[in-house]
Amino acid sequence: MTSSDVNKSNRLVEIDFFRGVALLVIFWDHLHWFVGLSVPLRYGFSDMAATFIFLSGYVSGLVYWKVYRFQGFRSMLLKACRRAVQIYAAHLTALIFLLSFAVFIPVASLPNPLSTLLGTFTADSFHTALRLFSLQNFPLLFDILPLYIVLILAVPWALLLLKIDWKIGFGLSFALYCATQSLPELNVRYYYPCWSLNPLSWFLLFGVAMTIAIKSRDGSLRVPVRRSYVAAALCLLAYSFFGSKIISQVLQNAGVVTDRMAVLFPSPFPLIGKSSLQPVYLLHFLCLAYVISVFAPRLRPFFNSRFAYPLVLCGQHSLPLFTGGIVLTYLFAYFVVALGGTPILFYLFAILGWIGTIGFALILSRKDSGLLFLQSKLRPTMARTVPVDGFGK
Questions:
Q1: How many domains does the chain have?
Q2: Could you tell me which residues come within 8 angstroms of residue 294 by beta carbon, excluding any fewer than 6 positions away?
Q3: Does the residue 116 lie in any domain?
């Protein structure tokens, strides 16, 4: 599949581009976490996890709403269940590959989350395997896929409420979100520590994205574009990136931190927790999404260019690339730490991981092109763009 083929397809190239960017940044940040170097690609109070969930919700809204309208609720429910099974299978496949890799390496040399899991598995294989298969336990970095399984299974019921009145669905999800902010008992992590992202909280962002997608497509919703709104959003983004880190650090180093300065530039900033999607974290991402939605139409020629083509392909094959990236992160983290853990090694393996991700996307794209060509010869009506949902192929 060439860049011209992508442009002619009925996919949302902008969504694929940003999803591809999110994949590469997530790989960088995951590897940074294991190595422990101060080189994260974080752009403020929120991070790429919110980007990934929002884009997934947006595309899921378009795909499943279309199925609901033309094929009915049952077909939509079956499609969601099939997709959840596919993601569950991808989750287990990545986990099995990771454990297979860990068996051949001394336990003491493994990254801490993996060595702990392997030790538990060796001590009690049956119950550990049972907890892994039931998603009650999984290593670090595996949290997004189980979260997405829960979200995708909730899509049919959310769209059922949306068809009745979108205000009902939004009101219920917002009420549930508010409850999770004040009641620890509603945090899944309270019962299963491996669930670092609470589905009851994150469904608000996922549901908002679905609602925006559906209402924008049928013309009943238009995102207001005003200079004052854009300026306010840009101010918050700039403050989160510069004010909360650089300015507060400069003031502390200069020894001029007063009570007023501490209020204006607190460190750490409150209410930016990721687990329960705390309000400032959510507000920051919504401002970022708003600014991008305003400027994205002007960048459409770039999204359709050959320079953006590799990232678009990554976004189109996000599920295999994401699961493979998790395994690759653990593997590269082992080598970086074993070879000394210097910043140069981190940059080398991070860039190598990016190159491998883009290369794998190109291979998958050529495979899809071959299948579509064969289908067009056997049955011309089958030669269509492979349908997608929120997590790509």
A1: 1
A2: 223, 225, 230
A3: yes
According to DSSP, residue 176 is labeled H
- Measured on CA atoms in the order 312, 318, 322, 328, is the torsion positive or negative? negative
286 SS3 class: helix
Radius of gyration for the chain, computed over Cα atoms and rounded to the nearest angstrom:
22
Reply yes or no: is the peptide bond before residue 156 cis, omega within 30 of 0. no
Residue listed under structure tokens 């309000």: 279
Q: Is residue 391 part of a domain?
A: no
Is residue 390 a part of any domain in this protein? Answer: no
Distance of CA 242 to the CA centre of its chain: 24
User: How confident is the prediction along the chain (393 residues), in pLDDT tens digits per residue?
Assistant: 555 554 444 468 999 999 999 999 999 988 887 776 665 556 678 888 999 999 999 999 999 999 999 999 999 999 999 999 999 999 999 999 988 887 777 766 667 767 777 777 777 788 888 999 999 998 888 999 999 999 999 999 999 999 999 899 899 999 999 999 999 889 898 899 999 999 999 999 999 999 999 998 888 888 888 999 999 999 999 888 776 666 666 666 666 555 555 556 666 677 888 999 999 999 999 999 999 999 988 999 999 999 999 999 999 999 999 999 999 998 898 888 888 878 889 999 999 999 999 999 999 988 766 554 445 555 544 333 444 566 666
The boundaries of the domain holding residue 315 are 3-382
Indicate the SS3 state at residue 24. Answer: helix
Classify residue 242: in a domain, yes or no. yes
Q: What's this model's pTM, rounded to 2 decimal places?
A: 0.87
In SS3 terms, 291-324 reads as HHHHHHHHHHHHHCCCCCHHHHHHHHCHHHHHHH
Q: How far apart are CA 18 and CA 312, in angstroms?
A: 8
Element at 220 (helix H, strand E): none
390 in Cβ contact with 205 (< 8 Å): no
